[in-house]
Design brief:
Blueprint: E1 12-13, H1 14-20, H2 27-31, E2 35-36, E3 38-40, E4 50-53, H3 66-71, E5 76-79, H4 81-89, E6 96-98, H5 102-114, E7 122-127, H6 132-145, E8 150-153, E9 157-160, E10 163-166, H7 174-186, E11 191-195, H8 198-202, E12 213-216, H9 230-238, E13 249-252, H10 256-264, E14 269-273, E15 282-287, E16 290-297, E17 302-306, H11 312-327, H12 332-338, E18 350-351, E19 364-368, H13 373-383, E20 391-395, H14 405-416, E21 419-422, H15 432-444, E22 451-454, H16 458-471, E23 477-481, E24 488-491, E25 494-497, H17 500-509
């Protein structure tokens, strides 16, 4: 779905945009001034009056789609030298602004076109391997409770007032981002809370935005298909914590990457830890009798808080959200009140309950989005204390993504669960059996007593998991992880409707009987 556009569009002179990005101005620009009213980098999203950004990509060059963009009403093209050559060879006769790296100037162009250069919004950006979506929901729902008009942009959805737009990516492209921010401003949003992925930072998607507050949750293995190594992944994330991109930062220093970021960042950093480290600005101590309850201690403030979501990691996410609210200027009473709100994060530790009178045998059934080794370990550790019978997990790994994490995901599952059902996630363009084999190998690498079962086909795997959990007796837990809120399964370029929550509910209602 393409991003919303502001209702009132203003025109930007193409000549001014060319000057803004230091492009050489051709005769046409001097002779015949042209105006654009929007910008997009996707020919399929062009609206009449748009500037079409034809970017070089890993599978195609945007210039290949310029004729399509022109037909849809694009009035000019921003591209590079190769793109210009292609346009001319294809006889596309639109005015062109050519620069060496068009992606790197797109954010400032989009900000100018949509009038978001002088931000009226308070911007909160959240990065880290795990916990971005959860923390963003926690901050946004607390701000809502406190009477703010809050916008949200992330993996699950974009929220503007009551409008909800399903997301395609965690962080939108800069052209869509500035358009969304303009719509938020138009609808009197005062604060925008958004997830900032490492892909976004590497691909200039948040250029033209300066965050009032940037948050770092943690860093662990993911995305090593895109980043050369962990160092490169860290450097991408660290970009958010530079004065060009944020005014101040809140960094969780539970892991070494966070500690390093806090030391190296050139913006003022507030630190938070859930460990014993007494040097952090904010420290968390969990109540041993009631793990969701915790004390958040600052230099001279103490807050008694409770995590609305299960698991130690959600204590960390909740504490981060609480300190973020304080840094945004909320007082301690307000934070204490607002943080209690259950943000309902779709597909994160989401309980699934069978409807009707079909008994679920006292099983706890949960859908979660854990799709990294660290997240699988954290999610299962969170469920262990609630398990009186068997802890059964269903997981796979995504195709055409970081292959190196599959082993660690399998190993983490075997380290905590009693039964590991290995199945398919989104195989995308890969052979599903080979992905399962890599996860299985990881699970086998640990000398654990867990039962390992391989089931091709996620639906059958979920049903088998419910059966195996029932055999474990009352108090057993079945956790289906990796796809969370997703409503489709991508196999060989086709997205088939598939929702873990519906599948798990159906399996509970049928008591795990095979379809
Ligand atoms: C690896 C990656 O991030 N790739 C992004 C990159 O693709 P690319 O350079 O390969 O582009 P391409 O497919 O060769 O196409 C070249 C150009 O032609 C344009 N085009 C293409 C086809 C067409 O019909 N019309 C058209 O205009 C494209 O918009 C693009 O500008 O630029 C494209 C837009 O310019 C993005 O859509 C694409 O994201 C793809 C879809 C993607 O899956 N990205 C994922 C991995 C991602 O970004 N994930 C992160 C992190 C998730 C998280 O951990 O939360 C996210 O923020 O979502
Ligand atoms: N602070 C945390 N530390 C470790 N694991 C976490 C943390 N928060 C959440 N998780 C685990 O990671 C999964 C993904 O969480 P969430 O969606 O909040 O992260 P994200 O950073 O937005 O992920 P993505 O990059 O895929 O969008 C959760 O379902 C949970 O299993
Ligand atoms: N935002 C994550 C989603 C992964 C979810 C998992 N279901 C998969 O397909 O790997 C990514 O782009 O890596
Ligand atoms: Mg997310």
């Amino acid at each position: 779905m393409s991003a919303p556009r502001p209702a009132s569009l203003t025109s930007s002179s193409l000549r001014d945009l060319a000057l803004l990005v230091g492009a050489s101005t051709d005769d046409w620009i001097d002779a015949d001034d042209l105006f654009v009213t929007g910008v997009t980098l996707d020919s399929r999203a062009v609206r009449p009056g748009d500037l079409y950004a034809a970017l070089p990509g890993s599978t195609a060059h945007g210039a290949d789609f310029a004729a399509q963009a022109s037909e849809a009403g694009a009035v000019a093209v921003l591209t590079d030298a190769a793109g210009l050559e292609r346009l001319r060879a294809d006889g596309v006769d639109l005015p062109v602004v050519a620069v060496e790296d068009p992606r790197s100037v797109l954010g400032s162009i989009a900000a100018r076109i949509y009038g978001t250069t002088d931000q009226g919004l308070t911007m909160v950006g959240i990065t880290g391997t795990n916990g971005k979506t959860t923390t963003a929901y926690l901050v946004a729902s607390a701000l809502d409770v406190l009477g703010h008009r809050t916008g949200l942009i992330g993996t699950v959805e974009t929220r503007i007032g009551d409008e909800r737009i399903k997301s395609v990516r965690t962080t939108p492209e800069s052209t869509d981002l500035h358009s969304i921010l303009a719509v938020m401003e138009e609808r009197d949003t005062d604060t925008c809370v958004m997830e900032v992925s490492s892909h976004a930072l590497s691909q200039h998607r948040v250029d033209g935005v300066v965050y009032d507050l940037a948050l770092f949750t943690n860093l662990s293995q993911d995305h090593l298909d895109f980043h050369a190594d962990m160092e490169d992944y860290f450097s991408a994330k660290a970009q958010l914590f530079t004065p060009q991109r944020s005014a101040r930062a809140l960094v969780c220093v539970d892991d070494g990457w966070g500690r390093r970021l806090a030391q190296e960042s050139a913006v003022p950093v507030t630190t938070l830890t859930t460990s014993e480290d007494q040097s952090a600005d904010w420290r968390v101590s969990v109540d041993a009798r009631e793990p969701a309850r915790f004390l958040l201690r600052g230099r001279d403030i103490e807050l008694d808080l409770r995590s609305a979501l299960p698991g130690d990691f959600n204590v960390a996410n909740t504490a981060m959200a609480a300190v973020a609210l304080l840094l945004l200027g909320e007082d301690t009473d307000a934070v204490g009140r607002a943080i209690l709100t259950d943000p309902h994060v779709p597909g994160r530790m989401e309980k699934v309950i069978a409807s009707g009178d079909s008994a679920d045998d006292g099983l706890l059934a949960v859908v979660d989005y854990a799709h990294t080794p660290d997240a699988v370990e954290a999610a299962l550790a969170a469920l262990r204390p609630s398990t009186a019978g068997r802890l059964v997990v269903v997981l796979g790994a995504g195709g055409d993504r970081d292959r190196g994490k599959r082993h660690g995901m399998g190993r983490a599952a075997a380290g905590t669960a009693d039964v590991v059902v290995i199945t398919d996630d989104n195989p995308r363009g890969e052979d599903a059996a080979q992905i399962r084999a890599a996860v299985l190998e990881g699970a086998r690498s640990l000398d654990s007593s867990s039962l390992l079962v391989e089931v091709a086909g996620r639906r059958d795997a979920i049903r088998q998991a419910v059966r195996l959990a029932r055999e474990g007796g009352p108090g057993s837990v079945v956790a289906v992880v990796g796809k969370g809120h997703e409503t489709g399964q991508e196999i060989a370029g086709v997205i088939h409707p598939f929702d873990d929550r519906d599948e798990l509910r159906a399996a509970l209602e049928d008591r795990g009987v095979s379809s």
